[in-house]
Here is the input.
Amino acid sequence: MFYTCHKQSPSCHVTKELIANIEKYLLEKVPGKLSIDESALREQYYIRIDERGASTMVAPISEYVFPQFPDKTDGLVMGFSLFRPSRCEVQVRFAGDRTGSKISVAAEGPNSRAVASEICEDIASIVAPHVNKNWFFHLGLVAELLLGTVFGVVVGLLVSLIDSGLWGSVVACLLLLAALVVYFGAGRWIKPYSSFETARSRALESYGGVVYGVLGGLAMSIAGSAIYDLIRH
Here is the structure.
C-alpha cells in the first residue's frame, strides 16, 4: 500500500536551529519509522535555500557556515526521496506564501498511512515552538476573495455616499479602503507566511507593530466616522 500525507506547515519564523531540529528528526528517527537504511537516507538528504534568482544546496545544515540566511531568501526546502527497497519521500517546504508552505510524506508498506501521518504530525510539533502570527496576512484563497469583493463593494458604495452627501460614511469607506491596502500591501511584504532569520527580517520586524497599529487606528476611525453619521442623521 502506498500513501501520501500532506499537511499545511504553520506560519513560522525559520532559523538554523529549527532546520537543525527537523534535520535531526529526519536523520535519526525517520529511518526506523520507515524501515530504511540510515546511510541511504543521508546520501539522498538535501536542503535547498531559495533566493530570488538563485538557489543554494547544502546538507547537513552545519555545513552552512553563515549565522543567518541571505537577505533575499524567499524559500527553503528540505527532505529526501528513496525508491529502494520501497518508495518513501519526505519534503518540508517553507515559503513566503501560505500555499507554498507544507509538509509532505509519502510511504509504501502495510502501515504506510499511520507512519506517514505520524511523521507529518511529528514535524509539525517540531515547528510549533517557532510559530508566529503572520498567518493573519495570509488567510487563504476564500478569505482573500471575500476581502477583494468587499473592496469592490466599498468602492461602489463610496460613489453613492458622495452623491448623498454622507461625509461621515465617505470617510469611513476611505479608511476601510486604506486598511485593505495596508493589509494586502505592507502587511504581506513585512509579514511573509514563513519568515526567515536574516538581517533584513530583523530590520522589518520593528515595523510589524506599526502595521498592526495602523490597522487598529483605521478600524477605530472607521467606527467613529460611522457613529458620527448615525448621530447626525
In short: The mean pLDDT is 80. The beta strands are 2-8, 12-14, 46-51, 54-57, 73-82, 88-95, 102-108, 194-196.
